[in-house]
Amino acid sequence: VVDLEGIANHKGSAFGALGQDSQPSNEQYENNLFEKWISLDFYRNIWLEDESKAIGKNFIPDEIWIQMGNSTVIALEMEKPLRINRLEKEYAQ
């Protein structure tokens, strides 16, 4: 699993910076992502959350972004009351 949002110190939404440390520079983000990337076992599945190209002020490198666009997407759905509860815990507390 590669936590693109965690590496960017941003939750990826309009309120993504709330409660987070400051974001790294884009250069540092790419360096941190590279460190994670080289630790992966490419003989196994690699899991990423489907993100937009920008996560706050950081940008997913083109090479990874293109590969994400060409990869299989698995949609996970959650009932609305569960989503509301999760979002309240994440942003309102």
TrEMBL record:
Biological processes annotated in GO: tRNA wobble uridine modification
UniProt GO MF annotations: tRNA 2-selenouridine synthase activity
Span of domain tRNA 2-selenouridine synthase AAA: 2-92
Name under which the protein is recorded: tRNA 2-selenouridine synthase AAA domain-containing protein
Native source organism of the sequence: marine sediment metagenome
